[in-house]
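Collaboration report, partner site 2.

Our partner group contributed sequences for two proteins of shared interest, and the home lab folded both. The records are reproduced in the order in which they were received, starting with the first partner submission.
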Amino acid sequence: MRYLFFSAFILLFGLNVFAQNQRLSDKYMAYNLTSLSLTKVIDESGFKPRKITSDATTFRSLVLQLDNQTIQQLNIDTWWLCSQKHEENFQIYNMYYKPISKVYFDANCKELIALMEIDGTVIQPK
């Protein structure tokens, strides 16, 4: 009887975790980043680069000049990082940059993680 209860608990817990990851996965797959959406989030969040450069104008210019292939790769990377490492990246963001709310991070996860990846704070998934 214990084994049945334990097995049922593990199965339900695993399904719950899978459902949460699937929900995030679908949410972040639904739209694609653009260089303009990145600059909009730079303005809204007050994002200040820390590693690649400390000059916000240079960073913004770099973001606006990203080619289509780079934007496409950022879409793939950020989809995975928002879906699988969501909470970890929220905490990393607030450690390195001006703290933001969880609600704002959830709504702009792909853009914020893309900015962190460009800045060198988070690394591309392997």
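Second partner submission, folded after the first:
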Amino acid sequence: MKRLLGLLIGSMLFLAACGNYEGTVIEKTDSSFILEVTTDNSKAGSPVHEKIYLIDPTIFSGAARSFEELKEGDRVTVVPAELSEDFPYILASEVNVEWRHQSGLVLVFLLGFKSARPTRTQVLS
């Protein structure tokens, strides 16, 4: 019985993740954003871009708690709202920001680290 329950829960988690979109935010508008979707096929050819529209019940989680906090370059997973297959738009039910794009922090850290290293004359004296 426990084994059957474990298989059922595992398959439900697997199926829940099948329709999600994962990628990087490349552009933001007033009520939507464009996502560069990472797939196995996009590595061979041109990247796939999807326009994701927000709706009132869209939930933000992870590094950004609202649409205003979402930045270009953020890595996100989008859970689409359940709609009929012939609906032409992707409406986000949930947006999970997994990684924040912070290029300035890395540069400052590297510059600070470089200046903290002793020079050859400091080591010899």
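Feedback sent to the partner group on the second submission included the following. The two ends are 72 Å apart (CA to CA). Strands lie at 21-28, 32-37, 48-62, 75-80, 90-99.
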